[in-house]
Amino acid sequence: MTGTWIGMPAFPVAARKALADSQLRVNLRNATGTIRARREAVVAEKPDWEALRQAGKEIKDRTIANLDEHLLELERNVAMAGGTVHWARDAAEANRIVIDLTRRAGASEVVKVKSMATQEIELNEALADAGIAAYETDLAELIVQLGHDKPSHILVPAIHRNRAEIREIFAREMPDVPAGLTDSPAELAAAARAHLRRKFLSAKVAVSGANFAVAETGSLVVVESEGNGRMCLTLPEVLISVVGIEKVVPAWQDLEVFLQLLPRSSTGERMNPYTSIWSGVTPGDGPREFHLVLLDNGRTNALADEVGRQALRCIRCSACLNVCPVYERTGGHAYGSVYPGPIGAILTPQLRGAGADPVAASLPFASSLCGACFEACPVLIDIPEALVHLRAEAVDAQRRKGSGKGVGERLAMRAAGWVFSSRRRFEAAQRGAALGGRVLGRRGRIGRLPWPLSKWTDARDAPAPPPESFREWWRRTRGTGE
């Protein structure tokens, strides 16, 4: 279990359905456009932005290269501060730890801070199966939960919903919704605040993730914009944080870099409204118990890949989603994973394994390779490079399974080599293509080619070949074919 949604189709099928939803495209275009503009404005204020990106990359690379040492240091310092560290190899083990700790606290419900790691391991579903209710407290996550929906964005999980849709969800699903609720943002936020305040005051157990874990001090860091995280981290008696092993940074000073990169790249702010940092437990202040669950769940597999491991630098800012032309048109659900967009296209296949399922196998191909994601990434993850690398792995995985995939490609390449090796054969192929383009083309585009070339046109636009090749034009105008 690693964050792909059971029953979801592979990306090409899901994307085709998403493209037919005009309201979804409007919602996505408006939201991503707003976030992009805000990010560009605050990034432009930093003359040392490129130096910060380089520093973030180097800190992450050094940390990943010595990950075992930093994790052991983190464990020691969390224990010295009064916390308890648990190690989870996979989703099942992490879920079991959280369930056992919740039951030991005598709780039948938990409040949750927004956390990609707990979505990845499907903790809410595991808690429900154990008879424990989980309440999301982030506004966007609450909208997704009440709507029986799936998140579609790393930063703004309900980005695919507009105000009118949110009001309908609240009116239908929120038990204590105010009468006459409108779609005013202030009214919607006030309704959510009143609903959640009761949960904050009654919950014994809270579950969080973390943006960073500082090995030097055993401190965890959560940044957020609404204050719900601060309530979860301070009011309950027991705090359980599920954190991917790649979230560790060596030293307190490293936060100086990342707390400049993250808010600007994610929300387009100079600083997050709430930055919560805690180390273990403090008698008489905050939770009486703190448990840190360090999650592997495929991360060591990614670590072993020299090209793919750069995905472990990710600080979950979502900048790559907001500039991606594919994401802007299909939304996050088409990726079939809790990690959508360009970063999800390289992270999910590595956590799952190349070719593990149709969703994971299709994701490296869910990109135009335009490079906008690399330009936006605050820690310089070369996503296009990783995508090409993972495409090769996906093809190799199919070959190892003996599926026969790739045979047609090899035959096509041999045929192309035979055609290209002769000028006469090449020119004959050009004339044939031009004739086919005149027959099949419409407004400069070919709608669908016959099999096996339909494999290309089913997923991509194919421009109609020009009626005259360059060689023919040169021969006609200059009198020579050379």
TrEMBL record:
GO annotation (BP), single: lactate metabolic process
4Fe-4S keyword on record: yes
Gene3D superfamilies membership: Alpha-helical ferredoxin, NagB/RpiA/CoA transferase-like
Record's compositionally biased regions (Basic and acidic residues): 469-482
Lineage: Bacteria, Bacillati, Actinomycetota, Actinomycetes, Pseudonocardiales
Source organism superkingdom: Bacteria
Record domain Lactate utilization protein B C-terminal: where: 390-476
Region Disordered, annotated ranges: 456-482
Domain annotation 4Fe-4S ferredoxin-type: ranges: 311-379
UniProt protein name: L-lactate dehydrogenase complex protein LldF
A Pfam family it matches: LutB_C
Alphabetic keyword roster: 4Fe-4S, Electron transport, Iron, Iron-sulfur, Metal-binding, Repeat, Transport
Alphabetized GO MF terms: 4 iron, 4 sulfur cluster binding; metal ion binding
Domain LUD, residue spans: 73-293
Record carries keyword DNA repair: no
